[in-house]
Amino acid sequence: MAAINIIDIKKNYGSVPAVRGIDLSVADGEFIVLVGPSGCGKSTLLRMIAGLETVSDGEIQIAGRNVNKAEPAERDIAMVFQNYALYPHMSVRKNLEYGLKNRGTPRTEIDRRIAEVAEILEIGPMLERKPRQLSGGQRQRVAMGRAIVREPAAFLFDEPLSNLDAKLRVQMRVEIRRLQRRLKTTSIYVTHDQLEAMTLADRLVVMNGGLVEQVGTPVDVYDRPASLFVASFIGSPPMNILPLELVRRADGDGLLTLPDATDTLGIRPDDIFTEKPSEPSIRLDAIVELLEPIGGESHLHIRLDESNQTAIVTVPGRPDFSEAAKIPVYIRVASIHPFNRQTGRRTDDL
Amino acid sequence: MVENRPFLTLLAHLVLIVGVVVVVFPVYVAFIASTHGPNDFLSGVVPLTPSTHMIENYSTMLTAGMTNAGAPPIGPMMLNSLIMAIGVAVGKIAISILSAFAIVYFRFPFRTLAFWMIFITLMLPVEVRIVPTYKVVADLGMLNNYGGLIVPLIASATATFLFRQFFLTVPDELMEAARVDGAGPMKFFWDILLPLSITNIAALFIILFVLGWNQYLWPLIITTDQSLYTVVMGIQRMAAVADAEPRWNLVMSAVILAALPPVLVIVAMQRLFVKGLVETEK
After folding, report:
1. Residue B192: which of A73, A82, A87 has the nearest Cβ?
2. Is residue B281 less than 8 Å (CB to CB) from chain A?
C-alpha cells in the first residue's frame, strides 16, 4: 500500500506527444479512475506508472521513491490487463504463483496466499484448470487473483472489463469495487466507459488530448464539469450544449445572470422539463423529432426554436408525444452550466 | 462439396490412387529388389515380385556392409547420419529460436539490419557458397569430424523467420505481465515463450531432421574418412562401383534401412507436427 505521486509527466513518441504534462497525487488506498476517449493518453499514463513505457520527462513516485528508472517488477505494483494476459500453458494455480515464485516467496506462504485469494474470488475449484478452459468472467477473476496474490503497493487496471458482455461487466464492476474496499489497496483504473468510471472511482481523472481536463469525485465532476469536453463526456445521454443567444432570446424575464465570457450553455437532459417546474425556468419552443423509450424513462429528441439546434430531454415514464408535435420545454435556470467556447472552460469557476 | 455424385467420387478416388501408386511404386521396387539374390538383376529386367533373400541381404548389410565396394558397414553410417541429423536439427532450432527472440523482443542498434541480413541468407542455398564454406571449414581443421558435418549447416534463416512470425503473434501483454511478475528476459523465454513454441519446435524438428538426414553434397565433400560417412552418401559409394555391376540387392536394402529413421520420426511426431503447422495456441 502506498501513495503515488505523478509530477509533470510527459511522454513523446518521436515528435508526437501522447501525454503532455500531468500532475496527479493518489492517496494511499484511493481508487482513481482515468477516463477519456481513445487516444487521450490514459493508457500511456498507466503504462508509465507500471514501468512498461519509459518516461520522457517528469517524475513518478511510488511510496515516496522515484521509480522512473525502475523495472516493473521493482515497483511493487500489479497490473490487470485488458485481455487478461494469463499464461496459456500454465494452470490457474501456476499463473497465480508465478510472480511469487520469481520473488522467492517461501512455499508455505505461496500456498497460504493462493488459498486466501481462491477463497476471496471463489476460484478454488478451477485452480488446476488451464486458462482456455475458463469462461471470460472466470479468466477475469484469475487475472485479478494474480494481482491480489502479490499483495502489491498498488493495483493498475487497464480496461479490465471491456472484453466482457454487458451483464458480466456490471457484476464484475461491483466485485472490483467491493474487493478494493476490503483490501484498501491504492488502485488506478483506466476505462473509456464513463459509467464504469462514475461507479468505481473515489476520484475521477478526466483526460483529453494528453492533458487532464478535470480531477474530482464523480459527483463533483458530474455536477460541475470544468470544461465543455468533460460536460459532454461524462453523463449519458450527454449534456446538451446550446448557444447562449438561443436561450437569451427566450429569456423574456431576464432570469439569466452569467459571467461575461459565457457564450455557450450546458444543460443536462434531466434538467429540461416538458412541464413547467416550480423553480425559475426559461421556456423554449421545441419540435419533437424522436421519442426513445428505454424502460423507466424516455429520451426525447427535440429541435429548438425552429433552429437547427437539437437537444435531448430525459422524461420519466412513457409520455405520449407524436413526432413533429410542437411542445414547450422548460430549462431550470439554476442547473445551467456556463462555458466559453473559445477556451472550452467553465466561466463561473472561482 | 456436399453433393453426392458417384462419378465424381469415383474420379476423386481414381486420381488419389494414381497419385499414391506413382509415389509408392519406386519404394516398392526398392523393397522388392532388396529381397532378391545378387544375380537377379543381371538380366536387366527389374523384378516386381518378392524373392527369398530378404533376411540374408539385410543381415549382410547390417553386419558386414559392402566393404569391398569402398563403403563401410551401414550401422556406423546410420549412426553418423543420426548424429548429424540430430545435431543439425537441434542446433538450428536452438540458434534460430534465440535469434528470433532477440529480433522480436529486444531493441538494439541495427536490429532491422540484422534481421534483413538473416533474411537475405535465405537466398543463398548451401550449394552456392559451398566452396568458400569448404575453405573456412578446412582452415578451421574441421574436415573429417562431426563438427565439420554439423556446424556449417547449423544456422537457418527459414527457422528464424518461422519463429519470428510465431513470436509476433504472441500478445505483448504476456511479456508485460511477465515483466510485472518479475521475470527477466531469459526467464520469460524459458518459462513462457519456450513452452508456447513447443508445437512449432516439434514441427520444425521433423522438417530439419529429415533435411539433415538427407544431406548429400556436404558430407560428400567434407568427409574422406570412411568412419564418418553418412548413409545417404554411403549409398552413392555403393552404387558407383568401378568395373562391376552394382550389387543392387544390397544397395536397395541399404536404401530401405536409410529411409526408416525419417519415417519413424515422422510417424512418432505426426500429431505434434500437424498441430504445430495448423494450430496457434495462445
Report:
1. A87
2. yes
Higher pLDDT among residues B46 and B105, named by residue:
B105
Residues A252 and A259 sit within 8 Å (Cβ to Cβ): no
Residues of chain A with pLDDT under 50: none
In the block, residue with C-alpha cell 512449432:
B200
Tell me the C-alpha distance between A268 and A38, whole Å: 24
Span B145-175, pLDDT tens digits: 899 999 988 888 889 999 999 999 999 999 9
Interface test with A, best of B170, B172, B173, B180 (most A CBs within 10 A): B180
Residues 6+ apart with CB under 8 A from A128: A91, A92, A93
What's the longest Cα–Cα distance across chain B?
76
Beta strands in A231-296 (DSSP E): 240-243, 264-267, 272-273, 281-293
> How far is C-alpha A96 from the chain's CA centre?
28
Whole-angstrom Cα distance, residue A36 to residue A39? Answer: 8
Does B173 contact A83 at a Cβ distance shorter than 8 Å? yes
Name the minimum distance, in Å, from the CA of B172 to any CA of chain A: 9
**Which of A289-293, B114-118, B159-163, B277-281 shows the lowest per-residue confidence on average (mean pLDDT)?**
B277-281
- Tell me whether A88 touches chain B (CB under 8 Å): yes
C-beta of residue A274 within 8 angstroms of C-beta of residue A329: yes
Question: Is the peptide bond between A237 and the residue preceding it cis, with omega within 30 degrees of 0?
Answer: yes
The whole-angstrom distance between A52's CA and the closest CA on chain B is: 7
Residues of A in contact with B182 (CB under 8 A): 73, 99, 102-103
d(CA B225, CA B116): 38
CB neighbours (10 Å) of residue B173?
Answer: 18
Q: Which stretches of A58-135 are DSSP H helices?
A: 92-102, 107-121
pLDDT of A1-27, one tens digit each?
689 999 999 999 988 999 999 999 999
Report the half-sphere exposure of A127 (CA within 13 A, side-chain side).
15
Distances (CA, A) of A29 to A76, A173, B115, B174: 15, 18, 47, 27
Question: Is B176 within 8 Å of A102 when comparing Cβ atoms?
Answer: no
| Pairing mode, strands A65-66 and A240-243 | unpaired
Closest in A72, A88, A132 to B180, CB measured? A72
d(CA A26, CA A2): 9
C-alpha cell at A126: 478451477
CA distance A100 to chain B (A): 8
Helix (H, G, I), strand (E, B) or coil at B2: coil
| Residues 6+ positions from B228 with CB-CB distance below 8 Å | B80, B144, B145, B146, B149, B219
**Residue B51 grid cell:** 524373392
Q: Does B107 touch chain A (CB under 8 A)?
A: no
**Using the beta-carbon criterion (under 8 Å), do A72 and B174 form an inter-chain contact?**
no
Strands A57-62 and A65-66: antiparallel
Chain B residues closer than 8 Å to A89 by CB: 192, 195-196, 281
Question: What's the pLDDT tens digit per position in B48-101?
Answer: 888 888 888 888 888 776 666 666 788 888 899 999 999 999 999 999 999 999
Supply angle C-alpha B196, B199, B204, rounded to 5: 120
Q: At which residue does the C-alpha cell 528476459 appear? A: B185
Give chain B positions within 8 Å (CB) of A78.
Answer: 180
Alpha-carbon gap, residue A148 to A20, rounded angstroms: 32
